[in-house]
Amino acid sequence: PLLLSQVRAFHHAFPPHDCSRNVYIKKNGPPLHRNPIAQSTDGAPPQIGFSEGRHAWEVPPQGPLGTVAVIGIAPPRAAMQCQGYVALLPPHDQSWGWNLVDNNPPHNGEVNGSFPQCNPPPKYQIGERIRVILDMEDKTLAFERGYEFLGVAFRGLPKVCLYPAVSAVYGNTEVTLVYLGKPLDG
């Protein structure tokens, strides 16, 4: 029998019909698989967005990240494919993310500083779990790596429905989104 966490993961997983043309959802599970297509950035939005409450999900990418690998939040109609190797989430004014490769927090096509703000910034290792924490009550977006809280990356989020989102450029990269529910504090 399926565990409640597995049912919740499938319920919040990436929908196969809204993906970039260069990615697909595996039939035996929720991972998103990016095909090896040159000069393309690809992504997918999950099925469920949030306009209230506090939510946490993990995004454990498997395989190399390439030059751009962004996790974050986006509106329901954000672009999911574009030419070149770019941070796909930020061109929209209601998209926020963290590029795991260069530690940039892009928003609206611009990078303001770096995230996390520690010296030296952490380098993402293959297999590490990245936890995203969206607090629609305090209007913040925060991240954890492993079990280390890295801080709040963005404040003042709008009171609109936002969806977890990812983008990748490296061929054969796989990404899973595991919705955890309300984050635990402490």
TrEMBL record:
<dbReference type="Pfam" id="PF00622">
    <property type="entry name" value="SPRY"/>
</dbReference>
<dbReference type="GO" id="GO:0043161">
    <property type="term" value="P:proteasome-mediated ubiquitin-dependent protein catabolic process"/>
</dbReference>
<comment type="pathway">
    <text>Protein modification; protein ubiquitination.</text>
</comment>
<dbReference type="GO" id="GO:0045202">
    <property type="term" value="C:synapse"/>
</dbReference>
<dbReference type="InterPro" id="IPR001870">
    <property type="entry name" value="B30.2/SPRY"/>
</dbReference>
<keyword id="KW-0833">Ubl conjugation pathway</keyword>
<feature type="domain" description="B30.2/SPRY">
    <location>
        <begin position="1"/>
        <end position="184"/>
    </location>
</feature>
<dbReference type="InterPro" id="IPR003877">
    <property type="entry name" value="SPRY_dom"/>
</dbReference>
<comment type="similarity">
    <text>Belongs to the FBXO45/Fsn family.</text>
</comment>
<dbReference type="GO" id="GO:0060386">
    <property type="term" value="P:synapse assembly involved in innervation"/>
</dbReference>
<dbReference type="InterPro" id="IPR043136">
    <property type="entry name" value="B30.2/SPRY_sf"/>
</dbReference>
<dbReference type="GO" id="GO:0019005">
    <property type="term" value="C:SCF ubiquitin ligase complex"/>
</dbReference>
<dbReference type="InterPro" id="IPR050672">
    <property type="entry name" value="FBXO45-Fsn/SPSB_families"/>
</dbReference>
<protein>
    <recommendedName>
        <fullName>F-box/SPRY domain-containing protein 1</fullName>
    </recommendedName>
</protein>
<dbReference type="GO" id="GO:0016567">
    <property type="term" value="P:protein ubiquitination"/>
</dbReference>
<dbReference type="InterPro" id="IPR013320">
    <property type="entry name" value="ConA-like_dom_sf"/>
</dbReference>
